[in-house]
TrEMBL record:
SUPFAM superfamilies: DNA-glycosylase. One of its GO terms (biological process) is base-excision repair, AP site formation. One of its GO terms (molecular function) is 8-oxo-7,8-dihydroguanine DNA N-glycosylase activity. InterPro entries: DNA_glycosylase, Oxidative_DNA_repair_enzyme. One of its GO terms (cellular component) is nucleus. PANTHER family: 8-OXOGUANINE DNA GLYCOSYLASE, OS07G0657600 PROTEIN. This is HhH-GPD domain-containing protein. It comes from Acer saccharum.
Amino acid sequence: MAMEDECLLKLLLPNSSWNLEKAVCSHGLFMMSPNHWDPLSRSLSRPLHLSDGLDDNGHASSSSSSVMVRIFHPQEIPNSLHVKVYNTGSVSLSSKEQETLLGQVARMLHLSETDEKNVREFERIVSEESKENDYMRNFGGRVFRSPTLFEDMVKCILLCNCQWPRTLSMARALCELQWELQHCSSSISIAEETEMENFIPNTPAEKESKRKFNVSKVATNLTSKISRIETGSEEYLKLDVVGATKEDVNSSSFQNNIEDDLHTLNEPSVGRSCLAAEGREPYPCDRIGNFPSPRELANLDKSFLAKRCGLGYRADRILKLAQAIVEGRIQLKQLEEVCNEASLTSYNKLTEQLNKIDGFGPFTCANVLVCMGFYHVIPSDSETIRHLKQVHARKSTVKTIQMDVERIYRKYAPYQFLAYWSELWHFYEQRFGKLSEMPYADYKLITASNMVTNRSRKVKKSKKC
C-alpha cells in the first residue's frame, strides 16, 4: 500500500498505565463484527465512519464513507494511542474527519474525563471492599462498547433471547450486508422482492440440508420449552430471556418469535453460509463492511433483512429503530447528552425513553444503559442465574434474580455492574483461558453448555439415576 494511502492519528491517554488489551477485551462486544482483535499484535481493526452520520439537528444524515483503521498502543510511547487510517487516497483527511474518527475511538475505549473518574472511583471501592479479589482490581474498570450508540442499540437487540454463536453470526451478516449495499446498490433495487431473491446467493445444498436437520432438533426442544412456559415453568431461562418481561419477550409473542427464528434458520442466505466459515479470520476479507448506519437500513424490506442476516423477528425491531432515527423521532445526540450527567434522574429519564422503543424491554434497555455509562443496574438473564449458582451458590429464579444481584453487589455502588462483570469475565477466563488470546474461530465456543463445570455435570447425572 502506498504511503499516501495511510494516515497516522494519535490520541492522548489519561496515564501511562493505560492498557489497550484490557480496554478492548472486556466485553463480548469486542468479538462481534466488524471488530477484529489481533492477539499477536494486540491491536484492534475495524472500519469507522468519516462523519457521525447526524446533521446539526441530530437527525440521520446521508450515509458517510468508511475507512479501515487499526488501533494500537506502542510500548515505547505509553501516553499515546495510535490510530492508523488506511485507504485515505491522495486527499488528506480534514480536521473534522480526524476529530470524528478519534471521537469514535474514544467512545469505544471510554477515554473521556468522566470515564477516567469512574475508573479511579471503582478501583478505590474495590480496594476497600474486595482485598482478596485481585481479578476485580485488575479488570481495568472499562467495558468495551461500539463507536456509535446506534451500533450498541442494535447489538443489544442481537444479545437478547439468543445463543452467543448466533449473535456473532447476525452481527457478521449485517456487516456483510453493508458491504453489499455499498458495492451493489447501483445494480439492484433492494426494495423489490423479485430482485431481492436474485441478490441472495444460495447456500450449498449439502450444508443447507445438514443445517435443516440440526434445526429440526432445535425445533423439537424449543416446542417442549414453550409448552413448559405456558404451564408456568421457569425452564425457559435456558433461552437467555430472564428480565425480558415487557418488550424483549412476552407471553403472546414468545412462541411466534421462536417459530419466526426457526423459519429464518431454514432459509438459504449468505448469512447462513458464513456459519460454515466462522473459523476464517474476518480480515483480510473483501466481504466485511462497516456496521450499517440507520440510513443504510431504514429503506430495506423487512423480509429481505430477516432472511439475509438471519435476524428473525429482530429485523422488524431493527428496521423500526433505524427508521425512527432517520425520521428524527429518536435523536441519538440528545440521548447521549442526557447520559453526560450520570445521575439517577438521567437514568430514569433515559429508561423511560428507551422503553418506548419497540423491542426494548428491561434486559435490552439495561444493556444499552451500561453502554451509555450507567453501572448501578445489572442486566439479568439466564447467564446471571447460572453465574450466581456456580460462584455464589445462590439458587436464583426469574422472580428473585434482580433482588439477589442487588444484595450481592450493592457494596460496590454505584458500580455494581462493573463488579459483577469483572467477576463474570474472570469466570470466563478460568473456563476458556485468556479471552484476549482466544482465536477468532473459538469465539463461538462460549456457550451455556460449555460453561457447565464437570462438577455440575456430575450432579445432573446423579439426579437422573
